[in-house]
Design brief:
Chain B: Keywords: 4Fe-4S, Iron, Iron-sulfur, Metal-binding, Repeat. The complex is a heterodimer of chains A (about 260) and B (about 180). With about 260 residues, chain A is an alpha/beta fold. Chain A is built from eight helices and six strands. Chain A folds into two domains: about 150 residues, Rossmann fold (3-Layer(aba) Sandwich), CATH 3.40.50.12280; about 60 residues, no CATH class. Chain B contains five helices and six strands, in the order H-E-H-E-E-H-E-E-E-H-H. Classes of the chains: A alpha/beta (about 260), B alpha+beta (about 180).
Chain lengths: ~260, ~180
């Protein structure tokens, strides 16, 4: 959280809601027995509405969360699962707590989206207190900005104990003396970076990288007749846009040729 | 009634079989950023580019290790890290099943050794970055390769060297 000048003792901070043992036990039992057919109430604590759009995409025909009995309900009093989207803002902390207390126990709390998990891109905003977890006991975190509908379904399956989480904390220590390989060592470094820049300038970082890789593979493969390989690549390309980038790269290659 | 069934059969089933069948995400889908620890030189470009500060780089207390750390919970999957990475060590994959029960599982980190300056002994850059720069400069050759031995020095020592050389040059010119 951002260190601001406003004294922290003057900022109201709620105590995190703690689950008492009886409710926790009831929740365990509930998870063991229901497995399906849960009602979801979503609480927007100050998000951009992107998460809501994805939640409603999840209950459309293509992803159809209702085939598992997952239904979005309009009141927390009907809910089994509370879906908190958006960063926990100061203004929305009270409604978020009210929704939590209105839902009958035992209930499952899900933090949805990057903002709901940690505060996301707004984590250092003056009115943001982080994700849902500073004030509520969260069961499942669903990251994504916004999480795609299948990711949402996976989150629900995780929350209901149907599927296991795939992500685990990992820490790697690089071995001493490990060398990062230089890409395409056969092609001079400056020529390679010039190709990369040109391809990215022409078609963006994502497609530019794919195109320049294809181009350099063709060059690296045929060391004897480089221009023959490039011409074959250009002739074999059906996509005119890609062809234009290849031709541009060929011009660049011609400009790099030096007589020996 | 039969007509309705025929229509239903003709229309087919739009619903994906996702939780029961694996779902192939379309090409270019920006899912979980995959960090290739072997390719990474710990230059920190991704940490600077990351708009949500999901990727951070931190030195440990005695400055012997620099740790690259990503929080998937904070990541907004914009792909800026993939765009800026000079070695293409980070790539957004089609992996979308990121939900976890424990918040700690959203973190992934990797530590890299930091080298000390050959003259003053202060830590100045990740060892892999210096090693990579040395090999690239050697392969480029020419003017760039003349400064290779200076890679063992920290920025302060190199500045001091440059200042001394400049002073010497100025004095010589004045004397001539």
């Amino acid at each position: 959280m951002l260190e601001n000048d406003f004294p922290s003792q003057l900022q109201w901070r709620p105590d995190p809601v703690a689950l008492d043992a009886k409710v926790a036990e009831a929740k365990e039992r509930l998870l063991g027995s229901i497995k399906r057919s849960v009602y979801v109430y979503r609480v927007d604590c100050g998000g951009c509405n992107g998460c809501e759009i994805e939640i409603f995409a999840t209950i459309t025909a293509v992803f159809d969360a209702e085939r598992f009995g997952i239904k979005v309900v309009p009141s927390p009093r009907h809910a089994d699962v509370l879906l908190y989207t958006g960063a926990m803002t100061r203004a929305m902390r009270e409604p978020a707590l009210r929704a939590y207390h209105a839902a009958p126990d035992p209930k499952i709390v899900m933090a949805y989206g990057a903002c709901g998990c940690t505060g996301g891109i707004f984590h250092d905003n003056y009115c943001v207190w982080g994700g849902t977890d500073p004030i509520l006991p969260v069961d499942v975190y669903v990251p994504g900005c916004p999480p795609s509908p299948p990711a949402t379904i996976f989150g629900f399956a995780c929350a209901l104990g149907l599927l296991d989480q795939k992500l685990h904390e990992s820490h790697h220590v690089a071995p001493v003396g490990e060398e990062a390989p230089v890409a395409f060592p056969a092609i001079p470094y400056k020529v390679r970076t010039a190709f990369e820049r040109e391809a990215r300038r022409m078609s963006g970082y994502y497609y530019g990288k794919q195109i320049v890789d294809e181009f350099m593979m063709a060059i690296a493969k045929d060391r004897v007749n480089v221009f023959g390989a490039v011409d074959a690549l250009i002739d074999g390309e059906a996509d005119m846009r890609k062809k234009a980038v290849f031709m541009d790269l060929k011009t660049l290659l011609l400009s790099k040729v030096v007589d020996e | 009634m039969l007509k309705l069934f025929k229509e239903i059969r003709r229309a087919g089933d739009a619903t994906v079989g996702y939780p029961f069948q694996p779902l192939e995400m379309p090409a270019g889908f920006r899912g979980k950023p995959e960090h290739n620890e072997k390719l990474c030189i710990a230059c920190g470009a991704c940490a600077i580019a990351c708009p949500a500060n999901a990727i951070t780089m931190e030195l440990n207390a005695d400055q012997s290790l620099i740790t690259w750390d990503i929080s998937y919970g904070r990541c907004i999957f914009c792909g800026r890290c993939q765009e800026v990475c000079p070695l293409f060590a980070i790539k957004l994959t089609g992996e979308f099943e990121l939900a976890v029960k424990n918040k700690g599982d959203l973190r992934e980190s990797c530590s890299y050794a930091v080298v000390q300056c050959a003259r003053c002994g202060r830590p100045y850059a990740p060892a892999k970055e210096v090693d990579y720069a040395r090999r690239v400069l050697a392969s480029v050759g020419g003017v760039a390769a003349t400064d290779i031995e200076k890679l063992d020095l920290c920025l302060d020592c190199r500045r001091a060297d440059d200042a001394e050389a400049f002073q010497k040059q100025a004095r010589e010119r004045k004397g001539a």
